[in-house]
Amino acid sequence: MPRLHVGCAMWTHKAWPGRFLPQSLPAKERLRAYAGWCNAVEGNTTFYATPTRDTVTTWAQQTGPDFRFVLKIPKVVTHERRFTAVETEMRAFLDAIEPVADRAVLWTQLPSSFGPSDVEALTRFLRRLPANRHRAVEVRHPAFFTDANATSLLEDALAVAQAEWVPFDTTVFFQSPPTSEAEQDAWAKKPRLPRRTLALTGQPIVRYLGRDSVEETVKGWQPWSELVAGWLSEGRSPTVFLHTPDNNEAPALARRFHDDVRALVPDLEPLPEPEPIEPATLF
Question: CA-CA distance, 171 to 220, in Å (whole number)?
Answer without folding.
Answer: 9
